[in-house]
Specification:
Order of helices and strands: HHEHHEHEHEHHHHHH
Shape: rod-shaped
Function: Part of the ABC transporter FtsEX involved in cellular division.
Structural class: alpha+beta
Largest sheet: 4 strands, antiparallel
Helix content: 55-70%
Domain FtsX extracellular: 56-160
Strand content: 5-15%
Number of helices: 12
Family: Belongs to the ABC-4 integral membrane protein family. FtsX subfamily.
Keywords: Cell cycle, Cell division, Cell membrane, Membrane, Transmembrane, Transmembrane helix
Subunit structure: Forms a membrane-associated complex with FtsE.
Length: 305
């Protein structure tokens, strides 16, 4: 009988404050969707780091005849065969180096045409204008500076470039976007908590006669509070369910279908369904507990039970 009474009171409260309940559901759904999205973004950045850092190379670009005329680093002329052999031998001796690949001018020209064949500049370039290079795979991508220190300024070397530096800028941008999403999420959570507290108080005020009678007949504090707490929890759970739906739909339409980013951006290793599903229980638990606790503390002060 008591359970039936609590359930009936929950239904009455939700219907009586339908507008505010709807606002609570929407704000909880949006804030928790942002919360889940920020967690998934962190996973995505970590996945991309692990994938790309394992593939980055350090490139040692060698001087050619054109560089000898225009680049101060190549003032002593184009790289010689002896210099190339010495660079290769020194690389083979270094503990941080995992593998070394030599790229000729013809190979560099072919790769350039494949990537930038539509560029107006491509038609004016010739293979002898391209740079020979050594592509170095490091055992630890963080050890780039060892290569740079050893080969920058050496005769025949035009420059030493680290692809990791380019990726770091990308990851900084992604992390910045992630923190911005978390800031919006925090703001939405505050709005959701304020709406929950106000909704509970309005509901309690509208039923102050009933709660007064219950207090007079000796009803326990928890028995009086339970319908209000459950109302907030139910509204929050609905919002959490919607947030889970938003995340699943976003993963489905953005990556697998619709925009199909997985097909269009094949160079990016996107997170799988497992990464999404593992956060859904956390979102549902948060959507249930957060409103319930907010209602509990609001009622302790308001009802004075």
């Amino acid at each position: 009988m008591r359970a039936q009474f609590v359930l009936s009171e929950i239904g009455v409260g939700l219907r009586r404050n339908l507008t505010m309940t709807f606002a609570v559901v929407v704000s909880v759904a949006l804030s928790l969707a942002l919360f889940g999205g920020s967690l998934l973004m962190s996973d995505q950045v970590s996945t991309m780091k692990g994938y790309w850092y394992d593939k980055v190379n350090v490139s040692i670009f060698l001087c050619n005849k054109s560089d000898a005329e225009s680049d101060p680093n190549c003032a002593k002329g184009a790289v010689t065969d002896d210099q190339k052999k010495q660079i290769k031998a020194d690389l083979d001796k270094m503990d941080v180096v995992q593998a070394v690949t030599y790229e000729t001018q013809d190979q560099a020209y072919k790769h350039y045409k494949e990537q930038f064949g539509d560029s107006p500049l491509a038609s004016s370039l010739t293979p002898d204008q391209m740079q020979e290079s050594y592509r170095i795979k490091l055992k630890d991508p963080e050890k780039y500076q060892v290569i740079a220190t050893a080969f920058n300024g050496r005769d025949g070397v035009q420059s030493v470039q680290d692809q990791k530096g380019i990726l770091d800028n990308l990851f900084k941008l992604l992390n910045g976007m992630n923190w911005a999403a978390r800031a919006v999420m925090a703001l939405m959570l505050v709005v959701a908590l304020m709406l929950i507290v106000n909704t509970v108080r309005v509901s309690a005020f509208s039923r102050r006669r009933e709660t007064g009678i219950m207090r007079l007949v000796g009803a326990s504090g928890f028995y009086i509070q339970a319908p209000f707490i459950m109302e907030a929890a139910v509204a929050g759970l609905i919002g959490g369910t919607l947030a889970c739906g938003f995340l699943l739909l976003a993963r489905y339409f953005l990556i697998d279908h619709g925009l199909a980013l997985a097909d269009q951006l094949t160079l990016i290793n996107f997170i799988g369904w497992g990464a999404v599903l593992k956060y859904l229980p956390l979102i549902l638990a948060t959507s249930l507990l957060m409103p319930a606790l907010a209602a509990f503390f609001a009622l302790r002060k308001y009802l004075k039970v």
